[in-house]
Amino acid sequence: MESGKTTKYFKYAIGEIVLVVIGILIALSINNWNQQKNNEAKITSILKEMQSDIVTDLKASNMIFDYHVLTDSIAKSFLNNRYTAEDVRKPRFYRIGYNYRDFKIVTNGFDNLKGTIDNVPEKYAVLLPEIKDLEVSI
Q1: How confident is the model at residue 130 (pLDDT cuts 50, 70, 90)?
Q2: How many CA atoms lie within 13 A of 4 on its CB side?
Q3: What are 31-73's pLDDT values in tens digits?
Q4: How many other C-beta atoms are found inside a 10 Å radius of the C-beta of residue 73?
Q5: Which of 38, 33, 61, 56 is nearest to 110 (CA)?
Q6: 40 to each of 26, 108, 120, 129, how far by Cα in Å?
Q7: Distance separating alpha carbons of residues 42 and 97, to the nearest angstrom
Q8: Which of 59, 55, 54, 58 has the alpha carbon at shortest distance from 131?
Q9: Given this model, what pLDDT does residue 116 score?
Q10: pTM of the prediction?
Q11: What Rg do the C-alpha atoms of the chain give, in angstroms?
């Protein structure tokens, strides 16, 4: 082995190693970017699910509220003798004495967020204290 060829070989080998390391770093950067993009899409989906859960809860609570307004107005009408015994036999009055309405808060979105809380992108981190406060009150 001549020293000139050995030096060229080492330069070539070092160059190849540098190229491989640069390639690996680029691949890791792309992988991290893709992972962040996937995490962001997942959190966005979970936040939309939470929004849907809240809308569902509002609709259910409004139905219960409307029911109680109706039954309260019917009860007041009975007290004021506006209805007769014949009126009570109508379907509208069927369950007048049964005022309990079950209400269960939908927590699917909250539950899903709990499982991914460590992967929340920085742009959504501002929402976490508010969401945690909401969850505590549930």
Answers
A1: confident
A2: 0
A3: 999 998 998 899 999 989 989 999 999 999 998 888 878 777 7
A4: 11
A5: 56
A6: 21, 18, 7, 18
A7: 46
A8: 54
A9: 81
A10: 0.62
A11: 33
